[in-house]
Amino acid sequence: MIFRMFLPITFASTIAASVVFGEGLGDAGKGTKIFSKCKSCHRIGNGAINRVGPHLNGIFGRKAGTIVGFAYSKSMVRAGVDGLVWTAETLDAYLENPKSLVSKTRMNFRGLKNPQARADLLAFLRGYSDEPINIPEAEPTATKTDLKIDPAILTIKGDPEYGEYLSGECKTCHQSGGEDDGIPAITKWPEEDFAIAMHAYKQKLRQHPVMQMMAGRLSDEEIAALAAYFKDHE
Q1: For the whole model, what pTM was predicted?
Q2: Helices in the chain by DSSP H: which ranges?
Q3: Which of 77, 100, 223, 226 is the one with CA 20 to 30 A from 161?
Q4: Domain covering 151-232 in this structure, CATH number
Q5: Average pLDDT along the chain
């Protein structure tokens, strides 16, 4: 896994880099306009500081939840500890549905559903990270596959009794009463959010090797059953 330090870049180099990056991911010029949706919470560029959300300079290659002095949610900090690094792949999944990667993120954004719009926004953001000329060929910004779930999977009606039967392994780590004592609670989740999170582990977008292994063993029906059980579990 590659970690890179943020290197300050000039406005001119940002424009040049954005043109190069636009060829590999999206249109940075269009991304500038899309970023207007983000400005109420985030700043980027020379002198950018944290506001409601953290500044976005150097976002590519940065470990989640690590800007010193910003009050992240426990879930975001934990995601970083578990290995979440912001790449084109993980940022794309996060922008599409923030809860697909960080279940209790404080980011009050319902998601950017248009894949081209996300690509354009990422092209714009990439210009403010270090060594933008090295993309998309070089890690950590190589584009892989984003989170893809057949909508029909999210309509599967889970059997809560079967989910209770399956839940034994979950409860070896997650507290059945819903307490969050170092390990996130999984009770009272909306069924769709639970299913999306589990499929993100299956596709190795959410970074936790044990959860990736556990989710990889489950069928779509079993995930739906667990979602149905934990939704109403006290």
Answers
A1: 0.55
A2: 11-24, 28-34, 74-81, 88-96, 115-126, 160-166, 191-202, 209-217, 220-232
A3: 100
A4: 1.10.760.10
A5: 79
Using alpha carbons, list the distances in angstroms from residue 41 to 32, 88, 216. Answer: 15, 21, 36
Fold classification of 11-134 (topology level): Cytochrome Bc1 Complex; Chain D, domain 2 (1.10.760)
Cβ atoms 25, 88 nearer than 8 A: yes
Structure tokens at 226: 């667990």
| Tokens 């092209």 sit on residue | 123
Domain range summary for the chain, segments of one domain joined by +: 11-134, 151-232
Q: Which residues of 180-209 are buried (b: 16+ CB within 10 A; e: fewer)?
A: eeeebbbbebebebbbbbbbbbbbebbbbe
Contact 81, 66 (CB under 8 A): no
In three-state secondary structure terms, 229 is: helix
